[in-house]
Fold this protein.
Amino acid sequence: MQKRNLKSLGFLLAPSVFYMVVFFLAPMIILILYSFWRTEGFEIIKTFSISNYSRVLSEKINWILIYRSILMGLLVSFITLLLSFPAAYGLTFNPRLNRYKDYFLFMILIAMFSSYLIRVYAWRTILGDFGIINQFLIATRIIKEPLEFLLYSRTAVVIALVHILTPFTILPVYSSMQNINPELLRASRDLGANSLKTTLKIVMPLCRSGLISGFIFSFILATGDYVIPALLGGKSGLMIGKLISDMFGTLYDWGGGAALTVVLIICLFAAFFAVIFLFKFFAMFEKLGRKLNRRDLRIQPSKIQDKENYKLKAGKKIHPWNSFLYYLKKIPGFEIYTIIFLIYMFAPALIIIFFSFNAGRAPTLPVTGFTLNWYKTILTDSNFQLAIRNSLIIAVLVSIGAGIIGTAAAFAFKRFEFKFKNTAHYLLIFPITIPGLLLGISLLSFFVLLKIPLNLGTVILGHLVFTIPFVYLNVGASLENFNETIEEAARDLGANSFKVFLKITLPIIKSGIIGGMLIAFALSFDEFIVTFFIIGGGQNTVPMLIFSMLRRGIKPTINAISSLVLIASFIFISIANRVTRLKVRL
Amino acid sequence: MYSVELKNICKSFGKVKAVDNFSLDIFDGEFLSLLGPSGCGKSTLLRIISGLENADNGAIYIDGSDMTRVPAHKRPVNMVFQSYSLFPHMNVFDNIAFGPRIAGIYESTVKAEVSRMLELVGLEGFENRTSEQLSGGQKQRIAVARALINKPRVLLLDEPLGALDLQIRKQMQLELRKIHKETQSTFIYVTHDQEEALVMSDRIVIMTNGRICQIGSPREIYNNPENSFSAGFIGETNLLNVRVAKADKENLIMEIGKERITAIPGEQKYAPGDSLLISIRPEYIDIYDTADTRKHDNELIAVVETAIFLGPDIKYEALVQGVIKINIRKGYIEGDFIFSPGDTVKLGWNKKGIVLVRG
């Protein structure tokens, strides 16, 4: 029995662990190897040297870009947390909003999984000289000239990064808040703490893990992003990711690029620990302050001894405010905030869909008329047909592969205890936290080193790396509620192991698997950055097509293509959410 | 002066009226219990007093000042929650020190106060424990200490012993009573356990459907229930619907079926033909063999239906005339005779033991 168990554990666990070691860990190591190999012309000389590092470190521009990227990353992750926290708080603790939390979470998933590239493009149409904001401000005569700092600037990069990354921070913050007993907040208020103090002293410490993982997510992804700076940043918004991608692309300096990546990762860690240290320092400072007791100047110790209530005194002092505050509380602040939040999340995509029906050539106001011509044009365009065929092939194969490997892994983790279980778990979910750029260049180095020709096959292998974790998490979540005594009952009633799986286990967790596969499909269909590095010449996918259209100047058909992709991903996520209450725990 | 005055408090959740035009004055320093079945609005009322809920209508005065629109964190009351609600990320000391620290109290005073509180609840030396390292009863004491350190004018306790097992609950009841005596603040205690209310309270308010059913001392409530709800809710009892046959100064004679029951008339006047509800506690009824010559004011022949051994007592259910079910509780000492189902017995009780229930 023991032996058979071990065999089935290996059978379930091996594919996923093997996959991650080969296509995730090995490429990362090879990338590090590359950083020690020199590039001469188009040749890579495989002897150990630190010349890449000395070259990269001596360039002043690299330091400026790393510094700027980390600052931008910190700023963006700070803003995303600031935006996520009240929304998560309202959904968890506000009884009126709490009723709609399922809808809200669904919308967050839509925002998370709907095309990244298209939403970045949408910000270009919103922030540009002829974009909605400038046109509106000019039409209402608030300004005369379009505001130029909106587009091709750091402002634009921050706005778009925050927009893209907020769903990634709100989920961990929200799910850690779910574990807080609302009664604790009431206890805190009852003990004299106002809302602010309750938030600072009770809510935030208790959802610390969610805040930290939300911070890590948005910090890493923001610092490592290169598409947004490339499309919206202009010169002042240039970030390190763009430079690294160029070194692996047009500049053909792989050794330098790899070295710069390693330096960047080290800097990221340093920045991260600096932030953690800062918080620890503040906490220490607070304790120290308590010991030093500046408060004795305000309240004499002797006064406490008489039978006076601390709170009553405070209450009498601020009495005129109480009525005002009482009515202030009736304003549905959280509801208003949530609506603005959702507008920020969804307006860009809706604007694109709106302009796809515009007869005029440019996505600007005023609208000149309704047309379906752009849709007709693209649906008959052979480039688009080819791209969509490729994208579908990739996405279907990726979702099947991820479905099988991820499900097997989820079973192994639920049903078996083994050594290094935690390590294996983190290995399986780690790829989610890696910026696409890093995954792309490491896979590129890996395939090229092993002389594997780049084509759709390598793209599928690459996409599997970041889709397997999602299936694993989703199936794992649906297995969590699975009562194993049901299987024992079936066995008791005479079913053999295979029949138990087919007739009992599979039907119950089917929805979890399908949901995970649909997420994998949507992610793969949308993926641009990883694809960009490992697709090889001559092939195109839909996101690649959109990107090249954006680079070459905007054609009106791009709105139609984008709308089709957005609507398709909306439908996919909706179905996924229908068949399974999607659970993405980050 | 009253400690808490509630004036016409109303609170609805959707269409459900949780608290319905509720008015009550609570004396300074008293231990008052709000007793009622779950969903009767007692916890909602407590939350309205604490400020954690706002009343739809009505006013709350604490120590004479209007608190209706004062938010919870500024009211001079503190609450002990049913689930204790100790902050899981703080140790015992920080939990208890939370209120004074928020109020900006000198830290050395906080320290002294916390140890005084720990002494009061009998948990000296527990400062550095986390809430995971505490038993249910200990958590409860910490919750009490955390509330009391703020010197609240009123301490609100929301079924604080509900999650504890019977042994510890009984011990904690006495302990809370002791703490009440020591602190001399007003305690408002919500419970659905009538025995708990009887043990602890100066006054009991029986609530149903968001309204007051009866107010009184434990003895008044137990011995003189004003209506069928209080009679049924406080303790086990036999409620019998009877009709008055004859009433004079000494005796009130009533009919139930063919049987007659004699009771002492209260101040109210009854005329023959009035229908009436009477309550007889099971422990007031004697059960004995038909051949026995014991004398009681009331004697009925009955047939034993069930006999249940409860340890100190035997609980019988007997049928009079085959339809009227009567519960009897008889003290049991090892060796006593126990009747079996089917035995014909005599039930007897004195007229003092009958309570006439209004309404």
Notes: Residues 121 and 141 of chain B are 6 Å apart (CA to CA).
